[in-house]
């Protein structure tokens, strides 16, 4: 899909980028002093990932980052969002730093800047050092202190060259699937432990924000440096107008949206949900300074990862937390917590092969709903993309559905800007094909294809050249 307009709605300062995450792209899982992460361990256990796939090699970005950055420059990327592997810098999670790990990210940042590409760093994209998990992981306040040390190390080493930072990526997923459904490490299904772990994540975030601002005030980070938090943005709508479905939808919003956005944008939990959690499980438990830390360290911006909307229904019967990891459309079952709510399919909607609804308007609607609750906050669209099995025809990767998907979502971002939403950048997921945590390498998202049968050779997809034109025209051509 290509469309021409006369003028761009996107401001000149708008950042056209792309995104990735360390475990999914870097490989070199034990190279040059890197310690094991929880994903290095978890993915090697039986029946945890699709066909036993793991990130041991991934796209081997660790050894090929210059080649990959050259492709980013060719595409015209103005910014690149990537995460740092905590155990690559601190193999034990704290203590002595690994010089080789620091050098890798320093060299990557320099290479990006050499090509005029602005780095956006995510400090935590799920790969907790296994050494910290061994002492309790996010359930332990020791991990909060370790994260603060890790953040300080990153600010010290990279803060002079990086303006855009976020602390955590998608608490909904790594806490929800790690502690509620058991599909991610540490593989638990214990709401009480999960709620407390989630609270510790928010306190770690607040401490990292506080430290960031101290560094910025001291001139160790640029004056225009900003720090945010990246959340899933998953708008919920009731499948019918029945009072039961509407109530279920409100509950889904409270538990899956407001609980995760309020602490970083309002500095507090939704009071009625906090009260419910503490009455039911006695958590989260607060340390004396926790309340003030949350209140005093609101984000500079929010990153939103938007892929889909969920239709919500009342749920008197379904207790299922498995998801479609096969890529066979329709193989997924209704996901739900009995007595709370469930996610159901709308027969009038369009879905991907992984049963994710394609609903571009939700990108605009979701940000509008967040603005209504939190006011005029800056947004970065930190992830948005189509997971698919891309066809190769006569040697060319013809990912036309991805072009259509992204084009329609860029139009939704344009609509949001027209309606007064402060959208500052767009980072499709992902720049290059990489490991999908539970889906292996069959689920492709990138502008660049990685041929796993030919020594990980990179190949530009049709979408690569399309996005190149989008960037060149500041969103005019799409």
TrEMBL record:
Substrate binds at residues 24, 125, 169, 307, 429. The keyword Hydrolase applies. It holds the Pfam family Glyco_hydro_1. Keywords: Carbohydrate metabolism, Cellulose degradation, Glycosidase, Hydrolase, Polysaccharide degradation. GO terms for molecular function: beta-glucosidase activity. InterPro entries: GH, GH_1_N_CS, Glyco_hydro_1, Glyco_hydro_1_AS, Glyco_hydro_1_beta-glucosidase. Its EC number is 3.2.1.21. GO terms for cellular component: cytosol. Belongs to the glycosyl hydrolase 1 family. This is Beta-glucosidase. The lineage of its organism: Bacteria, Pseudomonadati, Pseudomonadota, Gammaproteobacteria, Vibrionales.
């Amino acid at each position: 899909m290509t469309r021409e307009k006369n003028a761009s709605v996107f401001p000149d300062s708008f950042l056209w980028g792309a995104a990735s995450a360390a475990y999914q792209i870097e490989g070199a899982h034990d190279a040059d002093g890197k310690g094991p992460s929880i994903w290095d361990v978890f993915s090697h256990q039986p029946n945890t990932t699709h066909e036993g796939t793991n990130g041991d090699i991934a796209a081997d970005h660790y050894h090929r980052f210059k080649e990959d950055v050259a492709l980013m420059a060719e595409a015209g990327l103005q910014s690149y969002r990537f995460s740092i592997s905590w155990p690559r810098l601190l193999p034990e999670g704290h203590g002595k730093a690994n010089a080789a790990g620091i050098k890798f990210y320093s060299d990557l940042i320099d290479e990006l800047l050499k090509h005029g590409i602005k780095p956006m760093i995510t400090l935590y994209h799920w790969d907790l050092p296994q050494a910290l998990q061994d002492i309790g992981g996010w359930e332990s306040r020791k991990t909060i202190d370790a994260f603060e040390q890790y953040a300080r190390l990153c600010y010290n080493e990279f803060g002079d060259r990086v303006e855009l930072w976020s602390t955590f990526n998608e608490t909904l997923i790594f806490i929800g699937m790690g502690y509620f459904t058991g599909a991610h490490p540490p593989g638990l299904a214990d709401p009480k432990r999960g709620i407390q772990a989630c609270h510790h994540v928010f306190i770690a975030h607040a401490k990292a924000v506080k430290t960031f601002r101290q560094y910025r005030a001291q001139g160790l980070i640029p004056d225009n440096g900003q720090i945010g938090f990246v959340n899933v943005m998953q708008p919920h709508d009731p499948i019918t107008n029945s009072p039961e479905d509407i109530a279920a939808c409100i509950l889904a919003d409270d538990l899956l949206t407001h609980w995760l956005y309020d602490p970083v944008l309002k500095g507090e939990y939704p009071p009625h949900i906090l009260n419910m959690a503490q009455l039911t499980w006695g958590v989260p438990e607060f340390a004396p300074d926790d309340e003030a830390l949350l209140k005093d360290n609101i984000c500079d911006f929010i990153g939103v990862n938007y892929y889909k909307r969920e239709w919500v229904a009342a749920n008197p019967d379904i207790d299922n937390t498995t998801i479609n990891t096969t890529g066979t459309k329709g193989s997924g079952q209704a996901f739900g917590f009995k007595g709370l709510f469930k996610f159901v399919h709308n027969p009038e909607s369009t879905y991907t092969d992984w049963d994710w609804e394609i609903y571009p308007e939700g990108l605009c609607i979701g940000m509008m709903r967040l603005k209504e609750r939190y006011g005029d906050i800056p947004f970065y669209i930190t992830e948005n993309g189509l997971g698919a099995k891309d066809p190769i025809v006569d040697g060319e990767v013809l990912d036309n559905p991805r072009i259509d998907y992204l084009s329609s979502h860029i139009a939704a971002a344009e609509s949001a800007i027209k309606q007064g939403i402060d959208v500052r950048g767009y980072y499709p997921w992902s720049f290059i094909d990489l490991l999908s945590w539970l889906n292996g390498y069959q689920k492709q998202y990138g502008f660049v294809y990685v041929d796993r049968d030919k020594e990980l050779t990179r190949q530009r997809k049709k979408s690569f050249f399309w996005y190149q034109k989008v960037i060149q025209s500041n969103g005019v051509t799409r």
